[in-house]
Each structure stands twice: as C-alpha cells, then as structure tokens.
Amino acid sequence: MRRVLITGCPGAGKSTAARRLSEITGLPLIHLDLHYWKPGWVRPESAEWRETVRELTAQPSWIMDGNYGGTLDLRLAAADTLIHLDFSTFVCASRVLRRAFSGLGNVRPGEFVDGCPERLDWPFFRFVLTYRQRSRARDLERMQGFRGSVHRFETPNQLELFLERTGSDAPPSPAVLPAGEPGSR
C-alpha cells in the first residue's frame, strides 16, 4: 500500500478517512479539492486539471482523496490500492449538511485554498442526493478493471474497523512535516 486512492460520494468522509490513514501509515496526503479549486470556487480548465493530476499521481507514494470523475482513469492507473466509500445517500447527505452548517463561511484548512469558504449550494447538494442514481454505476464501471487491492465499504462502521485493523498492523508512522517544509505535501 503505497498509492492509495479514496473515492465515494461527497459527504462519505473521504478526506477524514484519508487523513486518518495518512496518520496511520505515514504516507503523504493529497486532498484533490486543494489542488482543484481556485479562490472564489473557480474551476480549472480540463486540460490543466488533467496535467495537475498527472503530476500528483507521479509521486512515489500518496493517499489521495476526491471524486473528479474526469481524472479517475489517471488515478486508478497510478494507484495500487482503492478504497471506495459506498455509503448510503442518507449518510452522505446528512454529513454534507452537518459540515456545511458547522463550518459555514470558514475554509477547511489543508483541504481548500483560501477564498473557498464552506458553503452549501443547491447544485452540489442535488449531486449528493442523486449520486447513487446518476453517478455510482459509472464510477463502479470505471473501477471494475482496477488491478490493485480493492476495499469497498458500505457503512462507516466497516471503514472504522478497517482503519483500526490497519493501525494495529502498521509500523509507527514517521514524523509529519509541517506544510511548506522541504519534502512535505
């Protein structure tokens, strides 16, 4: 487990799982949201984004969280481990609402750039509500040919057990460098 990709519906807890797994394993953490969004919630051009993902996936080791279906092919080709958080719509929607209301107007440090405060907009929430009907089958089809180790969890409890087991099997993690230090990500 050197290149771990964590996918799933928004609100499933990809960033939290990635952060915890990074702490357990000592692998560098890459939040795709931090690299995707520009201040003011501006999207990059498609070609620019694919190049960014190519550069990120070229690193020797990582834990990468995020959806971004347009680059899933690149990430799957580079990963050796896939963690798919296949949680219910209720779990994801309730987590999105809780996150939005508890952090409204604040930027999640380390996950988004300054200028991208927490918000809840209808198109995003509608995507969460319809993910299982509109996007899940497409994502599962894309994941089908993945040749690495696959871990699919349907409940937060299943994920929690996996993280606990991984933590008990993992060697002590090396010190994490603060952001901006040489070698940090």
Automatic annotation (TrEMBL):
Disordered: region residues: 166-185
Gene3D superfamilies the record matches: P-loop containing nucleotide triphosphate hydrolases (3.40.50.300)
PANTHER family per UniProt: DNA TOPOLOGY MODULATION PROTEIN FLAR-RELATED PROTEIN, YALI0E33011P
Protein name, per record: Adenylate kinase
Source organism (scientific name): Nisaea acidiphila
Taxonomic lineage from the root: Bacteria, Pseudomonadati, Pseudomonadota, Alphaproteobacteria, Rhodospirillales
